[in-house]
Amino acid sequence: MISSRIIGLGHHVPENIVTNHDLSKLMDTTDEWIVERTGIHQRRFMNPEKDTVANMAAKATRMAAERADLKIEDIEFIIFATITPDYYFPGSGVLLQRELNLERIGALDIRNACSGFIYGLSVADQFIKTGMYKTILVVGAEIQSTVLDLSTRGRSTAVIFGDGAGAAIVQASQENGRGVLSTHLHADGRFAEELYIKDPGSSRPQAERQPEQILDTSTFKVHMNGNAVFKHAVGKFAEVIEEALKSNQVHVEDIDLLIPHQANLKISKFLQASLNLPDEKVYNNIMRYGNTTAASIPIALSEAWAEGKINPGQLVCLAAFGSGFTWASALIKW
Ligand code: COA
Predict the structure, then answer these.
(1) CA nearest 75: which of 103, 51, 52?
(2) Nearest CA to ligand 1 atom 20
(3) 3-173 has which fold?
(4) pLDDT score for 143
């Protein structure tokens, strides 16, 4: 029986650190407000001279390949999760393929926001289990700093998000009982407009799509109904983790490490309390990076692994919730 194992993890974040104090110079906010409501102290914002979604993803991939002792040429397929692609089209998957000098291999783009990495991992797992590919790269990368309204008008959204990239190399394994045990994917499109960017959307009539016709450019920035997102997130995170445990006949006490998508530290803490998990079993790094959407889980995985918190034989649970709404979980026997 073939299973899929994550054999290498890497991440890359822009050098530019933006603290809450830095944001308070751009908008009416304070370090105290941001820390109390979100747990975030700082995030990284791209440098336009240096960083692109595809090149950050390439750096994360190289770190993952090096840690796995794998040659980049051994990657057979790319799955790229991002909601902030370098271009409107084509997706950033092909740009990453070019950055990595990989010729001809397929590249699939996934736009499932904060759940994008788990959706991508699920696709990789199925491709590996059917024997289609042996080695797949799954990345999540975002540059969100350029789609935030960094004025007081956008303060309730802008303080949350950051930029970065994370990568996982997933490989076929014959080792019984190890690897991705299951993935669980959900969506509820009724809430699409609770967290979204409208433009440049194809639903506008042609006349309205001329840049000079668009007087209110706020539709090009992230819109979020924070209260609605918060309310749904806490319920769905718990539900989808429960689903993963149940389908593998394990219990919450069996989890060695939970990596929740880094949406807001309050959401993670609420979830931890509702599952009754001790601090050492829940990994958070939102304090340093903010919410990096599709990149958040692979960055956290990469850091947790480097800190020695993920070891062979351990049970790792990933869970995400975000725009769509979409939510997902994965249970992995490392
Ligand atoms: N600094 C200071 N004050 C701010 C502020 C900021 N950055 N942002 C909003 N405020 C103000 C509001 O204007 C409001 O003031 P008022 O009471 O005078 O009208 C007050 O703070 C409360 O605003 P509210 O939006 O109700 O705050 P909140 O407690 O819901 O916190 C979020 C806002 C965004 C932190 C919170 O809703 C949240 O984390 N939601 C989930 C977001 C999330 O996880 N998104 C990603 C999903 S993947």
Answers:
(1) 103
(2) 156
(3) Peroxisomal Thiolase; Chain A, domain 1 (3.40.47)
(4) 98
